[in-house]
Automatic annotation (TrEMBL):
It holds the Pfam family FAE1_CUT1_RppA. It is found in: Membrane. Residues 438-518 form the Beta-ketoacyl-[acyl-carrier-protein] synthase III C-terminal domain. Its main location: membrane. InterPro entries: 3-ktacl-CoA_syn, ACP_syn_III_C, FAE1_typ3_polyketide_synth, Thiolase-like. Residues 121-410 form the FAE domain. This is 3-ketoacyl-CoA synthase. Residues 443-470 form a coiled coil. GO terms for cellular component: endoplasmic reticulum; membrane. Pathway: Lipid metabolism; fatty acid biosynthesis.
Amino acid sequence: MPIPSSAMASERDLLSTEIVNRGIESSGPNAGSLTFSVRVRRRLPDFLQSVNLKYVKLGYHHLINHAIYLATIPVLVLVFSAEVGSLSREELWKKLWDDARYDLATVLGFFGVFVFTLSVYFMSRPRSIYLVDFACYRPHDDLKVSKDQFIEVARKSGKFNEESLEFQKRILNSSGLGDETYIPKSVITSTENTATMKEGRAEASAVMFGALDELFEKTRVRPKDIGVLVVNCSIFNPTPSLSAMIINHYKMRGNILSYNLGGMGCSAGIIAVDLARDMLQAHPNNYAVVVSTEMVGYNWYPGSDRSMLIPNCFFRMGCSAVLLSNRRRDYHRAKYRLEHIVRTHKGADDRSFRCVYQEEDENRLKGLKISKELVEIGGDALKTNITTLGPLVLPFSEQLLFFATLVSRHLFSGGGTSQPSLSSGKRPYIPDFKLAFERFCVHAASKTVLDELQKNLELSEENMEASRMTLHRFGNTSSSSIWYELAYLEAKEKVKRGDRVWQLAFGSGFKCNSLVWRSMRRVRKPSRNPWLECIERYPVNL
């Protein structure tokens, strides 16, 4: 069966080519000759051109859910206006008083039903979850390394051959990282194995307690007041757990609800907030602390497998601690209110499941293997996530325009397909997410990923500024990166009252998660912030 030319064109548009210099051939018929190879890769899918009907179904479902209000409220307003409009103010009050005096039982019954309905509504509605404040750990300056120093540290360790060092150097030069990121002291000074329990606990203590000390100081909340504790760290999961380390260090109360999330990748910070939200909904008048981190030294790979060397180049030290509250008295001092959490999991697909995979190489050295299909898989997960998020946050006008253009395209295209033809030259109307959010915190994974996301979501340089500057200054700090980005926005005093903040993260599994906050007030430059000593130098020209 012949393949349609439009399908072949769609497939070609997802491919990119790269010419790789393989050096001088040492043997064979081409010995002594300079050889090249052509590498073909799949790019991030252009989901501006591949929006499916699921988005429309969700948006239409949202419209139908509110249809009764849209239909009845205008009718009631018209009837009430017709009835009351002919009466003067004195006549209206006289009519109301006469009706109430002669039918007191009806008035009292109506009032009782109204009070009962109002009470049930307020008792059954979900509690508002507030973000009181947060803190991000900034390591000491003696742990700071430039890209050249990083390669020198790797060379002095004696664990990498020249080919592996050259590969890491190329990755670093195109990574988007600057020369002031942080790596653990064990990686800098030791030539031995850094993936030990002792080094892992030492790094965990430094980053977690550093972030929590700052959080408790800023919020003036005692550790014993915390009712829920959620810690997420993907790679390092000792016994006792990291949450137990925190409880022991701060001598927290015995009935605290503590949870430790492991192996959930860079998007685990949003999952931890989701768990904390559920716990706060079930336990009123409480505080919850969410700690997000990753142990770089414990995940350090000393081998030569290129797909496992990539995490060495990107991941850097970092930790965030967030204080959440469901107490009404915290309304006036909270910075943000939680609006939406949307989680997407692609683990049922084998390619997605294995695209970020921890295993041993051929020399039985443990590392995190990154698939070449990561960008493509991440794009698919992101498309699903924003498809679900759209109807919750986009203005009704945007949803209506999108629905109308999609219907017209299906009616007049003649093909009846749900996917647009690239050869037709007609692009579907894509809702503008800049109308739904004022501030963006996209997980700072790598420069390549940020470039593709910016292009496909049609975001501006200002929208991506926090993500790019965080990657440049702190590197990929895993699940805590979205909090360093929010700290950047606060240090720049860009968050105003009513602003909606979109935190977007993705990680192993494969997962893509969205978190939406609404600012409760204008956020002034904090007294404690990881950016304060360098914020005047940013943004830098990359």
